[in-house]
Structures
1.
Amino acid sequence: MTRTEPPSTPSVLDTTVLSNFAYVDHVDVLAGLAGICTVPVVRTELQRGVDSHPYLQSALDALTAEIPVTTINDAVRSRETTARATLDAGEAQAFAMADVHDGRLLTDDGDARSFARDHGVTVVGSVGVLLAAIDAGRIDESTADEWLATWIDEISYYVPYRTIAEYR
């Protein structure tokens, strides 16, 4: 197995954000973001889910080649153990990586978002990633609106607004 160190100030994906972008078949948008990475437990969660959710295969395919799966060091493992009292395995490991390396946690899970904020870790969800992709010129606002509508209508993604303009 190749050891992959986390990027400087990593943006650490958990399964929820990867899943949303895989659903619209555009994990490539995530791969183009600065500092993007994920953790081994998230890869395992995707592997377990691909049989019932075949669209997750595109997320698995992007890992390592486009989205690095980071090596977990002792500091991350220790922080992960603490987070596991509150969060599931993937969220806990992604949180721990972001926390130890002064990064951001990319998640849509409400409990993970609250936990991270309570511990001083910046949180960005799928909508924030859409906004960043628009600002970086990777997608336009109408594409972001289309993906957001798909998530809301087809996979019961809950957000307060249906259009990107309402978040600006």
2.
Amino acid sequence: MSTSIKVVVNRSGGTAKRMGDKLAAAIDAAFTAAGAKADLALVEGKVIEQAISNASSQPVVVVGGGDGTQSTAAALLMHSDSALAVLP
């Protein structure tokens, strides 16, 4: 299996909140099916900025959440060497 990919998900809203305890398994299964391993951080919205900042040394940071989460991720990662990937 390939290197782990950092995945940060805002568990406070939308789909993540609806999926609840099933979310982590669904993300792991999707990454495994694609031949990758997710290094998953499910965090509350109030700490999403810190979680993304902590991941900014990774080559790719996958972020799941709504418009606010995605715009925060883009702002935090735009001057880093990390590529931002959006988790639909």
3.
Amino acid sequence: MGLAFDATGNLYAANFAGNTVRKFSPNGTDLGIFAIVTRPTGLAFDAAGNLYVANIGTTIQRFSPNGTQLTPFTSLALNNPEGLAFASLGFLYAANHGSNTSQVSSPTGLLRGPLSPP
């Protein structure tokens, strides 16, 4: 469902039905499963190279560049987040499929509300 490139050109694909995020090299070689996530949808990388994965539910999972699962980024007031994008100051925007809204979170994961970073 979602695609994202890391800083070195690797492609990450959210496999909703397979509950995985797969990694592909710049030349298209399948590098295997990067992460196991229940029903992943949106993907985005932060400036540090961490991968954020939205899932159908209420969470955004966070993974280090080597694939280690970190604490969830946020689980507040999300309703089936799908699309993810980072703004230049580190604010993460999430499009919520279930409520037809968008939310913005601070760089620390604190939910800031609909589309209005401080």
